[in-house]
Amino acid sequence: MSQAITHKESSSNEVFRHKSLVIDQCDTSELFTMTLGEEKISFRLCDLLSFKKKIFSIDLVQLFDVSYRDVEIIYLPNLDRHLLLSLEDLLSVRELLTGTFAILQLNSQVQRFLHNPFAGNIPH
Question: Strand ranges (DSSP E) for the chain?
Answer without folding.
Answer: 12-18, 21-26, 32-36, 39-43, 71-76, 81-86
